[in-house]
Design brief:
The structure is a single chain. The strands form 2 sheets. Strands 3-4-2-1-5-6-7-10-9-8 form a 10-stranded mixed beta sheet, sandwiched between helices. It has a 6-stranded parallel beta sheet with strand order 13-12-11-14-15-16, sandwiched between helices. The two termini are 29 Å apart. Strand 8 and strand 9 form a beta hairpin. The chain is α/β, with parallel strands linked by helices. Helix 1 packs across helix 16, helix 4 crosses helix 6 and helix 11 packs across helix 12. The chain is built from 16 helices and 16 strands. Bound molecules: adenosine-5'-diphosphate-glucose (ADQ).
Length: 457
């Protein structure tokens, strides 16, 4: 069995795995696999060797960034160019030349450090938008092993992509992988459309694309969870702390402008305006820990939400009822599972989202006998899989979202069970082991097909 080498921004800890990706990949890494990630330590000068860490079920090695690289590669190109680009917010892009230069240089340096560690029959699986050029840099160093990439966020359409003045270079990066995995079919279609605009690109059959002699397979692999494990966690979780007098609508997101939080708060305010009978009967619990606070767009969204929740609470609260509880902290997984299970409605309404695992976790956490209702944005990748069971909404339409909340709060038990069963089946059929195996099988296949064929004579 060949060794799996995973590269991601976050390096898992050596103790019990909790992050979704670690759970997803640990079986494939169990036979001496290697995981390379960011140490989250800033150094003065760029290092040329990875640091090995003890502990854990597989080998872990890290790279450091300098302060300048943290600013230009991480906060800059990754989170102020690629993140807004992929989430349909080109207006928030900061196209500074030093960002792109740093992105190229950091990926080149990491490629060199990884190439030194590689064994001949390794398979390399690169995770996410921080490392789009890593495959290209590894190929420049003569690495011939299979290299796959998985993008956790949406792929931009050709219009947004045209806002990158170096789009041709990005297409070259993509073509250097054997497999370019995306979350949803809509992303595959966007990627193929973008490729069509690249100079010299050829679209081959079945999602294969060719650019300057490099052939890459593009396909979708909707990321998933382990629903059994999450359901168990939810059943055993403490639910104390919920206000039993009011039906809870729960929202759980990183505080990010892609998650549609202001629209969600406005819709909830609209619900309270339109249905005064709900006063004291419903409560929105929004958990949203701040992230990337060094980026201005993230400070702005935080301010906007504080204002909005204050405004709605001010207009509707009574002495013994707070309409919105807005919590600015991260909540441990077990607690979160219990909160999902105790909530009548799960509100997942991003304006753009690769998949959204909160939607899947909310469903997995429900009590099969008395399940809650999922309200899901049509712009979450998860909508391609859960459209039968969730109430699908347009997060830009405030009145429609408010009505979906009212419908969910009043939905009869029979319909709730039916919807839940249909979603639970999708989660069971396409769980995280399925996701991993689909990707790794496709990676082997596309690498094999690009190898020079032996002449049978
Ligand atoms: P995220 O944007 O972080 O991930 P999401 O998939 O919703 O979005 O969440 C990932 C994990 O973080 C989930 O397990 C969730 O429970 C946890 N989480 C989110 N908010 C939390 C909170 N407030 N407190 C505690 N835990 C929280 C990116 C993409 C998504 C894609 C994932 C995985 O943006 O579209 O689904 O990667 O590929």
């Amino acid at each position: 069995m060949s060794r799996l080498v995973v590269v991601s921004n976050r390096l898992p800890s050596g103790s019990t795995p909790s992050g979704g990706l670690v759970v997803a990949l640990q079986d494939a890494l169990a036979d001496g696999g290697l995981w390379v990630g960011n140490s989250n330590k800033l150094t003065d000068t760029p290092a040329d060797r990875l640091t090995r860490h003890e502990g854990g079920k597989f080998t872990r090695m890290s790279f450091d960034l300098t302060e300048e690289e943290q600013r230009d590669f991480y906060l800059g190109y990754s989170n102020s160019v690629l993140w807004p680009l992929c989430h349909d917010r080109v207006d928030l892009m900061e196209l500074l030349p030093q960002y792109l230069e740093s992105y190229r240089a950091v990926n080149k340096r990491i490629a060199k450090m990884i190439a030194r560690e590689l064994q001949p029959d390794d398979r390399i699986w690169v995770q996410d938008y921080h490392f789009l050029s890593l495959g290209y840099e590894l190929r420049q160093l003569g690495v011939t092993q299979p290299i796959g990439f998985f993008l956790h966020i949406p792929f931009p359409g050709p219009n947004a992509f045209a806002a990158l003045s170096h789009g041709q270079e990005v297409c070259r990066w993509i073509a250097a992988f054997d497999l370019f995995g995306l979350q949803a079919r809509r992303d595959v279609s966007a990627c193929l459309q973008v490729f069509r605009t690249a100079k010299g690109a050829e679209l081959l059959l079945n999602g294969r694309m060719k650019l300057e002699d490099q052939i890459v397979q593009v396909a979708s692999f909707p990321i998933a969870i382990d629903p059994e494990e999450f359901a168990r966690t939810a059943r055993n979780a403490p639910t104390a702390g919920l206000d039993d007098a009011a039906a809870t609508i729960i929202g759980v997101d990183r505080l990010d402008y892609s998650k549609g939080l202001p629209q969600r708060f406005r819709a909830y305010g609209h619900l309270l305006d339109a249905h005064p009978e709900l006063s004291g009967q419903v409560a929105l619990l929004q958990i949203a820990p701040p992230t990337r606070e060094a980026v201005k767009a993230y400070q702005d969204i935080r301010d906007e939400l504080e204002q909005l929740s204050g405004h709605i609470n001010g207009a509707h609260a009574t002495l013994d009822w707070t309409p919105i509880r807005y919590i600015h902290r991260s909540v441990p997984r077990e607690r979160l599972a219990g909160l999902y299970r105790g909530a009548r409605v799960g509100l997942v309404t991003p304006l753009a989202d690769g998949m959204n695992l909160v939607a899947k976790e909310y469903v997995a956490a429900q009590d099969a006998d008395d399940p809650g209702v999922l309200i899901l944005s049509k712009f979450a990748g998860a909508a391609e899989q859960l459209f039968n069971g969730a109430l699908i909404v347009n997060p830009h339409d405030i009145a429609e979202m408010a009505e979906a909340m009212n419908l969910a709060l009043n939905m009869p038990l029979g319909e709730r069970r039916e919807r839940y069963q249909s979603m639970r089946k999708v989660l069971a059929d396409k769980d995280v082991a399925w996701w991993r195996e689909q990707f790794l099988t496709a990676l082997s296949a596309s690498w094999q097909s690009s190898q020079p064929q032996m002449d049978p004579a």
